[in-house]
Q: What sequence folds into this?
């Protein structure tokens, strides 16, 4: 793994007596695309603003490249931010916007000129030097905001829901642009979003946050396939999250029926939660599966059918390329390695804190 | 769709414009009127405009007004803008609390703000003058600036500012580059509002200005007693035109400014910004220099001063100059609108003025309240040498031993009538009750003068405090009311000159001059007798420059100086030597200016009525006015 670039240690922050971040610890490595993912109010933007220097933590330290920068003003930090609503300087043209940081650093005119054309090329907006920001579309404005940030050659680029204001198609295009940029620039991106799909598409490393705590960290695959608690499972994609009992190692009782699984070490007759992704639920003819049920709802989604199946007193969400009309009597089968077993949180706070710390 | 304006709409527009501009047009027309009267067109003249150039007092007041307005605008705009920015960053509850507090000066009645500030300055021992007025103006201007800037500030996203910080800008630079440009239109409109409020303000200025300092509004107001001079029309006309031109220019500038800005952007031109910075810096330095000068002026108090408090337009300004030149004493000259206002000011701060020029009854009141200093007659030889003995005799009515006052001006109250409209000889106040002249009679809008007429007509004392007599007089005045065209003050002369009324109660000083404008006017003191009034110079008991005050009196008693003042004021002078020097034979021998002893013997001065008497008159006057 590459070297540690930013370390947040024991960060706490509250606004008006309301705790937003509670003893948060996070390490960000060089040249990583890190995404802070979570619902609104989870503390992800506050975390980003603490890194950017726009907020000072009540407790804890921010270490950047081995230096404590907790109290350093934002204009002294070697990182740049792309804001949610672009925050372009509306009374300056595009060239002046991009040159803003370079002029402050007293770069030569030629250097600035070269940088502007380089940055505009990078974001595919060559020839826009003398346009005014208002005359650009949302996507173009966001690309200018990115260009304005990267010409300063920051070690880290902070992006605060930069695609939030764009429409779906543009958002997808920009996701690929950002991945490309990240590769070409070879710097660290810290990206904040509440869109799990965006996070899965772009990130090297995802940090799932809720209620001021980190719920789970890991690669997109880890997060998706092995959510460590019900919150993560629910937040990352659609899931069937069912209360169950761990009978013994590699055997779990779901809705009264025993299913073989691959998890061990939960003890015997222990209450747990299980997560089964909808695409992992197989519908088979009566008699061939473990639980019997009836299809109660079906819609066509393009790539697959999305169905709801009433079985064992639970409404199962099922994705399948095979159509089963409403009323079809089916059995449900799940491969052992597709059953993800999680500890049940003992309290709500514990749930927020994440299973790993219990 | 029909886009033409319908006739009804046109008429409506015309009426609105008429309402808005008719008064201003009247003012501008009058500013070119050769006649001093408002009622008569005496031909076209630039005289009033030319006079203005030489009128150092008005020019001074105008300079004060502009300097105060300018500095107050700059300072309050800076503070107000800074406050708006700071408020936006605060928590909602703190913000609304602070907003509430800062809005108070705006919602508060001016008079409350003015008096509070005056009291504060007194307690802090600030010398009222330029600095106190400036502080007051800054204080009441800040909320207006915030009113304009704060709403704009709320619409500006802090993200733009943060973006600038993020790109390495220092906080102030980031503010200047991101928030300030968006805020500028609001700041300019706030500054314009502050400037206008500052120029407009009268009440707060009045209470905080102290002695010897005037802005245009207080200067003009102090002249109300004697009637506003045509020079003031000229001045107002100039101000109106200047404001109009400024408005038009600023409109043009806006259009052109945006074009230039566009071009500058296209060319990547930073020159404009540099110019802007240069302008701002030079404006700020001018403001600082002005402030320094002002403070310097306040703190270098000269030892040779005399603080004079006189009625408005009651001296030839050249006399003040001559006195200063000759004696080296600096005259801090202030004017009051009425005896009552003068009394209030002196009662509030006995040491504010060294010398006053009150009327007879007010002198009595000041003596009663031990507010005057006994005069050292040996220091004012001219006062005994040139002022007629008979005037000292009359003065005993209010200054029994001739210890406190030196007569300055005097006159009578009588009837001015138009010989064309009134055929019969006028000898009695009864003519003012003659139904023949219904709607043609003008009365003085003043308690004492109105009751004097009614009391004298009945043969009662004009200083009567007998409730029965006052009651009779009240009934008489109520009975007369339907015949009266109007109760007015200085409009009597204008209306009489313009043939708008047949009869009017008027002061002799005004009467002398009306005859020059309208041959048909005749002044008479009725047989029943009337009021003779005397205004005199008195030194305050707490005077800090009593010696200089005595020099002032002695100087004014010189015959040639008294003559200058007589020719300027036109009220009769008690200075016998000056009377004899009057060149115009008609005036020297005028019965109006100098009635014979027999007529004078029928006239009395007003004496103080006492508290009970004042109350009696006030109530009676209310009855009369409400019967109208």
A:
């Amino acid at each position: 793994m590459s070297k540690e670039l930013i370390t947040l240690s024991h960060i706490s922050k509250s606004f008006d007596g309301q705790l937003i971040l509670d003893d948060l610890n996070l390490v960000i490595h060089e040249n990583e695309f890190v995404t802070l993912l979570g619902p609104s109010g989870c503390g992800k933007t506050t975390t980003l603003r603490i890194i950017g220097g726009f907020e000072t933590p009540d407790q804890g330290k921010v270490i950047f490249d081995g230096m404590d920068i907790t109290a350093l003003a934002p204009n002294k930090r070697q990182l740049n931010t792309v804001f949610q609503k672009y925050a372009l300087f509306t009374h300056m043209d595009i060239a002046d916007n991009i040159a803003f940081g370079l002029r402050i650093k007293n770069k030569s005119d030629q250097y600035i000129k070269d940088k502007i054309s380089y940055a505009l090329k990078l974001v595919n907006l060559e020839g826009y030097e003398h346009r005014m920001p208002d005359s650009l579309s949302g996507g173009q404005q966001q690309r200018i905001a990115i260009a304005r940030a990267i010409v300063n050659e920051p070690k880290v680029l902070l992006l605060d829901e930069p695609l939030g204001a764009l429409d779906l198609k543009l958002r997808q295009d920009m996701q690929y642009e950002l991945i490309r940029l990240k590769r070409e620039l070879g710097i660290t991106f810290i990206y904040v979003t509440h869109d799990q799909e965006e996070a899965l598409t772009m990130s090297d490393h995802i940090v799932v946050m809720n209620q001021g705590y980190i719920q789970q960290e890991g690669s997109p695959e880890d997060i998706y396939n092995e959510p460590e608690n019900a919150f993560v499972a629910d937040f990352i994609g659609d899931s069937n999250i069912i209360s169950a009992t761990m009978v013994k190692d590699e055997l779990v009782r779901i809705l009264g029926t025993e299913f073989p699984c691959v998890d061990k070490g939960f003890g015997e007759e222990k209450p747990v939660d299980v997560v089964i992704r909808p695409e992992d639920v197989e519908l088979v003819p009566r008699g061939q599966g473990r639980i019997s049920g009836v299809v109660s709802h079906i819609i066509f989604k393009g790539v697959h059918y999305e169905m709801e199946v009433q079985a064992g007193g639970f409404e199962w969400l099922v994705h399948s390329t095979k159509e089963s009309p409403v009323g079809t009597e089916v059995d449900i089968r799940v491969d052992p390695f597709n059953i993800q077993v999680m500890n049940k949180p003992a309290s709500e706070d514990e749930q927020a804190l994440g299973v790993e710390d219990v | 769709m029909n886009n033409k304006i319908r006739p009804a709409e046109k008429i409506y527009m015309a009426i609105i414009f008429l309402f808005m501009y008719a008064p201003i047009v009247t003012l501008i027309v009058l500013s070119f009127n050769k006649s001093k009267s408002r009622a008569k067109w005496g031909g076209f003249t630039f005289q009033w405009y030319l006079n203005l150039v030489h009128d150092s007092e008005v020019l001074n007041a105008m300079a004060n007004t502009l300097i105060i307005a300018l500095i107050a605008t700059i300072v309050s705009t800076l503070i107000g803008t800074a406050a708006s920015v700071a408020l936006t960053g605060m928590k909602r509850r703190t913000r609304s609390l602070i907003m509430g507090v800062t809005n108070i000066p705006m919602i508060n009645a001016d008079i409350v703000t003015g008096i509070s500030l005056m009291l504060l300055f007194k307690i802090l021992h600030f010398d009222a003058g330029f600095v106190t007025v400036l502080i007051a103006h800054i204080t009441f201007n800040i909320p207006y600036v915030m009113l304009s800037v704060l709403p704009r500030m709320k619409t500006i996203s802090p993200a733009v500012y943060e973006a600038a910080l993020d790109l390495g800008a220092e906080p102030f630079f980031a503010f200047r580059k991101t928030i300030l440009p968006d805020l500028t239109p609001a700041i300019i409109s706030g500054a314009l509002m502050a400037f206008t409020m500052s120029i407009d303000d009268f009440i707060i200025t009045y209470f905080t200005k102290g002695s010897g300092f005037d802005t245009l509004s207080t200067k003009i107001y102090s002249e109300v007693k004697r009637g506003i001079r045509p020079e003031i029309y000229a001045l107002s006309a100039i101000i109106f035109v200047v404001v109009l031109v400024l408005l038009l220019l600023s409109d043009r500038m806006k259009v052109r400014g945006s074009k230039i800005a566009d071009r500058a952007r296209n060319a990547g031109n930073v020159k404009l910004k540099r110019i802007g910075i240069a302008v701002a810096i030079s404006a700020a330095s001018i403001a600082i220099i002005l402030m320094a000068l002002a403070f310097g002026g306040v703190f270098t108090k000269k030892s040779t001063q005399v603080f004079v408090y006189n009625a408005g337009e009651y001296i030839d300004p050249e006399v003040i100059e001559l006195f200063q030149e000759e004696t080296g004493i600096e005259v801090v000259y202030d004017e009051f609108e009425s005896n009552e206002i003068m009394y209030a000011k002196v009662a509030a701060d006995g040491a504010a003025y060294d010398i006053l020029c009150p009327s007879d009854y007010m002198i009595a009141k000041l003596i009663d309240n031990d507010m005057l200093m006994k005069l050292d007659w040996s220091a004012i030889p001219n006062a005994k040498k040139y002022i007629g003995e008979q005037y000292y005799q009359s003065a005993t009515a209010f200054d029994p031993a001739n210890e406190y006052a030196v007569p300055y001006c005097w006159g009578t109250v009588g009837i001015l009538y138009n010989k064309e409209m009134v055929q019969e000889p006028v000898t009695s106040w009864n003519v003012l009750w003659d139904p023949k002249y219904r709607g043609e009679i003008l009365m003085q809008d003043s308690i004492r003068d109105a009751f004097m007429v009614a009391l004298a007509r009945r043969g009662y004392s004009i200083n009567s405090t007998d409730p029965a007599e006052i009651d009779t007089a009240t009934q008489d005045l109520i009975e007369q009311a339907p015949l009266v065209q109007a109760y007015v003050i200085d409009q009597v002369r204008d209306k009489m000159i313009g043939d708008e009324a047949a009869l009017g109660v008027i002061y002799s000083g005004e009467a002398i001059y009306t005859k020059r404008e309208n041959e048909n006017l005749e002044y008479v003191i009725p047989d029943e007798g009337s009021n003779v009034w005397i205004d005199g110079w008195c030194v305050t008991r707490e005077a800090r420059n009593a010696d200089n005050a005595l020099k002032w009196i002695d100087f004014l008693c010189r015959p040639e100086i008294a003559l200058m003042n007589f020719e300027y004021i036109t009220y009769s002078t008690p200075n016998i030597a000056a009377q004899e020097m009057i060149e115009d034979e008609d005036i020297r021998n005028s019965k109006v200016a100098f009635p014979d002893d027999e007529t004078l013997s029928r006239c009395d001065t007003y004496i103080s009525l006492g508290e009970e008497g004042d109350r009696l008159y006030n109530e009676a006057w209310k009855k009369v006015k409400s019967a109208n």
